[in-house]
Design a protein that fits this description.
Blueprint (H helix, E strand, L loop, with lengths): L11 H4 L15 E3 L13 H12 L6 H8 E2 L4 E2 L1 H6 L7 E4 L4 H9 L4 E6 L8 E10 L4 E6 L2 E7 H10 L4 E5 L10 H12 L4 H14 L4 H13 L3 H14 L4 H13 L3 H9 L8 H15 L15
Antiparallel strand pairs: 1-6, 2-3, 4-9, 5-6, 5-9, 6-7, 7-8
Helix pairs in contact: 2-3, 7-8, 7-9, 8-9, 9-10, 10-11, 11-12, 11-13, 12-13
Amino acid sequence: MLRTACQLAAVCCLVAGCATRAPLLESSAGLVELADTPFFPQDRYQCGPAALATVLVASGVDVTPDDLVAQVYVPARRGSLTIEMQAAPRRYDRMAYPLKPEFQAIIAELDAGRPVLVLHNYGFPFWPRWHYAVVIGYDAARQRVLLRSGTERRQAQRATHFMRAWDNGNRWALVLLQPGALPAGAAQAEYLEAASAFERTTSPASALKVFDAAIERWPQEPLAWVGRGTAHYRSGEPRNAAADYARALQLDPALAGARNNLAMTLLELDCPATARQQLERIDEDGLSPALRDAIADTRRQIQARAGQTDTGECSGGY
């Protein structure tokens, strides 16, 4: 779903009808404030670039909101789309990781020293008022969430008010990670999905760091090995790529994409006979048209070398 920000409504839209609930912050949690988080007062309708610049600079990137306007701001909507807010950090070698829609996921990242980009809706479902802000801490004793928001450098918002606006924004939140860093609440599937999107545009060196971290955390996850194999291939290291693809297939022999990648890599290593053997092991039933086309292309390249024997170092346990 496309969303835009930032149109601010009166605070009464947020406060009206708040239900009584247990404290969101345990009093023992104390006070956490990432006071060194930069602050960029937003211009009208441009909280997206300002909030994104805040978390980018906090992650070590030298950037300003003006640098980001053309990348994320949509004048016709007077705001920024969440899909662009997730994509833009890749241009600065940062991986956007969407958090679980749980308040404790935000708290965990703050405790780990990372500010959190959030989307609030200060209006109603039929009249939304979207607004991006950056969570920089919390004060458990006062039940306050601390934000860089709009023109306020340090907004201390009631936790219940924060949750209402975040609920209305469908609990969208993300953190930015340097290559090789894991989020505080790293979830395997979500991390690998973010890593896959990041790998398509980043350098091979950064992609290797991302998948090295995944393998260290989840060594039995085949897709982490596939990702690292692709990073090695892009780095000009086909032998390392082949070893990674082979490890992925040891963990899950049914991964047709990994087996096709291995066949292509073996072909590059002057192992056409071994590559052919790998391709023959693929069961194409139920595969996507795109993957079928990729396998067909590999098959054509192998057939072009029909009759040739392996001349490379092809004994890698494939």
